[in-house]
Amino acid sequence: MPKVGMPDIRKPQLVKATMTVIERVGLHAASIALISEEAGVSSGIINHYFGGKHGLLEETMRSILREHGATVSKALADLPKTAHKQRILAIVKANFDNYQTQGCVIKTWLAFWSHSMHDKQLMRLQRVNEMRLLSHLLIELKAIFCESHAQNVAHAIAALIDGMWLRAALSPEGLSHNHIESIIENYVETQLLAQQTQY
């Protein structure tokens, strides 16, 4: 976490530089020297405010997660509370918006996921992100399905989001966002149809 007093103008500058350097050379080679050079600041500033590379990576991921959270919130705010299917699909779409699929953001996400397996603080951030996604989905799904089935469908949608995002990130050709969203929408439609045929 950045220390109190860190100029707000410096935070986005350093976050952007961190993502740019990670995209260019990878997390392990992304040294404080390279990041500070990219940001046009001294290495001492990064060490002073973030305690080094680890703290800066944590702040970078917090920034990405805040951006993602704001995108989801805005998408849901534009829809009626009772439009459950549309709200589910809006949550899905928010995971593939333009910001989240930038090359530098994608590579930072991948580095974060890998690094979080060996770092308790980064793993905590990942868990918060995971629970937030499930929470958003469950609010809508519980209005349609019973508790247990809503839980199952929420986890399946989350797995589809993560799996399709990962396939797109690692594929040289990538995947069409529309194609990804249609695959997940087909799953949601199948679940809704099965629910209707029970009555």
Description of the molecule:
Keywords: DNA-binding, Repressor, Transcription, Transcription regulation. Pathway: Amine and polyamine biosynthesis; betaine biosynthesis via choline pathway [regulation]. Pfam families: TetR_C_6 (PF13977), TetR_N (PF00440). The protein has a single domain (10-197), classed as Tetracycline Repressor, domain 2 (Orthogonal Bundle). The chain has nine helices and no strands. It has helices at 10-25, 32-39, 43-50, 53-77, 84-94, 103-116, 120-141, 147-170, 177-197. Helix 1 (10-25) packs across helix 6 (103-116) and helix 7 packs across helix 8 (147-170). The chain starts with 9 loop residues before the first helix and ends with a helix.
- How many strands? 0
Name of the CATH class: Mainly Alpha
| CATH superfamily descriptor | Tetracycline Repressor, domain 2
Provide the domain count.
1
Major β-sheet, in short?
none
| CATH-defined topology | Tetracycline Repressor, domain 2
How would you state the average pLDDT, rounded? 90
Principal-axes shape call: elongated
Number of alpha- plus pi-helical segments: 9
| Helix content class | over 70%
Looking at the overall shape, the CATH architecture is Orthogonal Bundle
Beta content comes to under 5%
